[in-house]
Each structure stands twice: as structure tokens, then as C-alpha cells.
Amino acid sequence: MFKEISLKQLIWLLPVVYLVHNIEEGLSMIGWLGEHSSALPELFGKLLPESFWEKFSIIRTIALIIAVLLPLALAFFHRYKEKYKFVVLLFVFAGWITFINGIQHIIFTLLLQTYTPGVVTALFINLPFSLGLVISIEREFPWLDKQRIKWLTISIICYLPLVFIIWAIAALLSILF
Asked: Where are the chain's structural domains?
């Protein structure tokens, strides 16, 4: 009944998955922050300068664009996956980062006991997609066998710094606007 999706198709779907997820976040983030700012830890406000919050819409838009362009750029490297092990590892990393982002949305929703922007697509699109991507990569590249925990751990360690780097780049680029 269903045709199996190829690894190449999954890789090209990665930017689409991010786009759909980021649209959900983008459509609800500003209103949600206004309604739930008291539920967020004070730490967020202290870590970020006042200018960040003044330009939040612009910064958020730039961060969304970056978050879609990175997987799109990665998809262009698909043709090199047989030649360069590093490219395959980037795809594994992207799959696990997508998975961790989905888990993060679910955790925030449970902790705050309310809808959080991005949780619907995280639960119904990002989580199943990311697991499918990682499993497909592992099937096509047997040398990855038994490295799942290693790459999940590396992705967990890199997740927050990666998010902060994307937001920092977006904040710097917002100066131009």
C-alpha cells in the first residue's frame, strides 16, 4: 500500500519538515510569549539583552530562515554521501537534532501544562521523520551500526550551543534591519 521513501527523498524532505515546523512556531510564538511570559524562567530575560526582545520578530524571522537554509544546504551534499563519511555523519546529526528539538517541545509543553509553539508538528512530523531518517541512514550505511547512542549523545551536547549560535547570528543580522 505505501511505497518506502528513499534516503534521498528523506534528505530532501528535511528542509520541508523544518519549514512546516517553523511556520507553526512563527505563527504562534509572539502571541504565546505575550500570554505566557510569566511562566518562563527569569533566566531567559536575564540572559538576553532588552534589544533582543525589542527586535524579537525580526530576529525570529532570521532564525527561522537559517533553520530552513541549513538543512536545505545539507540536502545539496546528498550526492557526496558515498564518497565522504563526514557528509553521512552530518545527516545523522541533523536527524538527531530534529529528534531532540521535538522532545524539547514536548518537555516544555508538559512542564508548562499548556500548548507551546511547535509542539504539534514536533510530535506528529518531526519525531517520526527524524527517527525514520536516522534508521534509513543506518540501514544504508552499515558502518554506523552500534553508533546510535554515540551520535545521539553528541547531538544532545551540541543542541543548545547550536540553538544559541543560530539566535546569535540572527540577532547580529537583525542589526541590518
From this structure: 10-29+50-174
